[in-house]
Amino acid sequence: MVGKSTEKSSEKVSEKQAVPDYRNPLYYRNREMSWISFDERVLSEARDKTVVPLFERLKFLSITASNLDEFNMVRVASLKDQYNAGYTKPDIAGLTPEMQLRALSESTHAFVKEQYNTFNRSILPALSKAGIEIIGDYTLLNEKQNKYLDKYYEANIYPILTPMAMDSSRPFPLVRNKSLNIGALIAPKDEKKKKEEFEFATVQVPSVLPRIVTLPDAEDGHKVLILLEEVIRKYIGVLFQHYRVLCAFPYRIMRNAELTVDEDEAEDLLKEIQKQLKKRQWGEVIRLEVADGIDKRLLKILKKEFAVSDEDIFYISGPLDLTFLMKMYGMPGFDQYKIQRYTPAPVREFIDAPDIFSVIRKQDVLMHHPYMSFDPVVHFIQQAAADPEVLAIKQTLYRVSGDSPIVAALAKAADNGKQVSVLVELKARFDEENNIVWAKMLEKAGCHVIYGLLGLKTHSKITMVIRREEEGIRRYVHLGTGNYNDSTAKLYTDLGLFTCDARIGEDATAVFNMLSGYSEPERWYKLSVAPIWMKNDFLKLIGRERDNALAGRKAFIKAKMNSLCDPDIISALYEASHAGVPIELLIRGICSLKVGIPGISENIHVRSIVGNFLEHSRIFWFCNDEHDEVFMGSADWMPRNLDKRVEIVFPVEQEDLKKEVQHILTTEFEDNVKAHVLQKDGTYVKVDKRGKKLINSQEIFCEEAWSRIPTQPTPIESRRFTPAEPLIEEDLEETDDSM
């Protein structure tokens, strides 16, 4: 089939047709609008009653809200900065910042409306049927519930609240980013005062208290819940005893979360980032959420004080900040509405092995997380820290867990006299504070800590252990597609490779020398490294498939990544497609490429999987005239990854492991349960599975991971999985790709 399509394409190209303009803006989709489409795919899971249990739908709806928050704080904030600075250069789709902001405002308002339609019309009725009632208005409480709340409020809520008024002697209070607040208009009880006189007051809903308050069960046995802000609204008059409360409504703001760090001027990057983090709470307000039906006088005050325009005000028909739905998931009971939590399978190669190094000496080991346990990666560092023959450990850290066993092992290694070098990326968005803590701790333990490179983020996932053995010095290397984070390793789909291949070891040494000494190696044996070499390597691989197709040889490209928006890569893919190369892409999030353009992208097909685990691995498979080459790594096909970061892509050469990676991609392209297919008009539709065998790739990988284990402790059916919040993580980090 491939041969036939390439023959026809070769004939077409040989007809001296005009070379298409592969950089035509009409052939590209704006990355921000594409991201909105991604959150719409997440929302579609919250709306899917056919295969998604009720409590899992709660989670997906919550995820759409947290995703949208981060999108506003980073991407929309960046566009506003560009617009305010007079920046008018269009993006690859031909849209200026002003045009993007207009389009995003329209799309985001429509999206929020759909979120709350889902909550009000689908989720709430389903919860009621399941035996859960959420009271949205305190005036609907019965006598028993009112008496319960009287005591609960006085004992648990009232002592914590801090009412703040605004008048001639008290300026408008500082309102924290993303905090939920109750705004009120109050007037003195003195009847002599004019009726139109009033003052503004606000109280922050305490984040230290549970937002969900459980009331006594209803007579029919239903569990009854009310949200904390509604309880505060009920008793807000208690906070202003000498005033009449004219109205009280919840509101919430979103601020610009961009860090403006001038690395050239910052003498101490760590101190400068710490200083900028404090400003994140008080940045420019870019979005105001208010309860639908809010008093116009109150809204006027909020609008003026936060300096927001009408298009940045969102009228919410329901509870503000739907992330509280994630907390509901933890309520005891209701297991029949959840997917049972999945336990990662042990990695077969390391079961009963005397030590991790002996296994890696025999063969490369591939790990597929979270289907397989992340423990071997942790044990790799822990054993290296304790092994007297280990001389040095070198590692890059981008995001680690709050109580990271890997960081603890690195500190232990330094304490044991090993040479430990760690690059801690301080600029990992929203993990800056966490990474600063770890960096300081590692330094105190005696590790040599590097705080990233000037002007670049180090996003590569690499660890090298140097060990003294009978044959001489041997280098053991772990390379991965995901972070060294034992928590997210249970939630994100990633791949990792253990190897002691001498040439990869040489390259690993060169990587760490480049990071610590700014030295560029003369050549790379196996690894492809950004920002200098990787893009050119990918363009050559894509170009080779194009040339093979034109010559009548077999050619195809299959790739999986988080996002695709690099114009050079997309242009090369269009050229390859025009030459007849079949291209299959699995892209979870942003995709600026358009499919189905006559003569341009007719041979390109794009899918997106939104499942219970966050798809995070990057895989690149090139046919090479049936001499397949397979690569994995940390980089997406985005300008930030290829031009502005230290990234690593590595080959999978051991034949059995190469087949395993190919199997992973093939299975995901066959998914008809969680896959969405990109259409010509830029929309995504679920795969039509009528009359077909259901293929859920994530469930298949769960079963396959345990099938590799000789004795299975529990039936496969009981190891179904459930996610914690699959944040979009790195998709939103950089803000200047369009500049």
Please provide a written account of the structure.
- The protein has 739 residues and is of the alpha/beta class.
- Among the domains are: 2-27 and 529-732, Endonuclease, Chain A (2-Layer Sandwich); 348-522, Endonuclease Chain A (Endonuclease, Chain A, 2-Layer Sandwich).
- 36% of the residues lie in helices and 20% in strands.
- The protein has 20 helices and 27 strands.
- The strands form 4 sheets. Strands 14, 18, 19, 20, 21, 23, 24, 25, 26 and 27 form a 10-stranded mixed β-sheet that branches.
- Helix 13 (405-415) runs parallel beside helix 14.
- The protein is globular, with a radius of gyration of 28 Å.
List the helices and strands and how they pair.
Elements: H1 2-13, H2 31-47, H3 54-84, H4 97-130, E1 132-135, H5 143-157, E2 163-166, E3 180-188, E4 199-204, E5 212-215, E6 223-227, H6 228-234, H7 236-239, E7 243-255, H8 269-279, E8 285-291, H9 296-306, E9 313-316, H10 324-328, H11 356-362, E10 365-369, H12 375-386, E11 390-397, H13 405-415, E12 419-424, H14 432-445, E13 448-450, E14 457-458, E15 462-469, E16 472-480, E17 492-499, H15 502-517, E18 528-530, H16 534-550, E19 557-561, H17 567-578, E20 583-587, E21 604-609, E22 614-615, E23 618-622, E24 629-633, H18 639-643, E25 645-651, H19 655-670, E26 675-678, E27 684-686, H20 697-707
Parallel strand pairs: 1-6, 8-9, 11-12, 12-13, 14-25, 17-22, 19-20, 20-21
Antiparallel strand pairs: 2-4, 3-4, 3-7, 5-6, 7-8, 10-17, 11-15, 15-16, 16-17, 18-25, 19-23, 21-26, 23-24, 24-25, 26-27
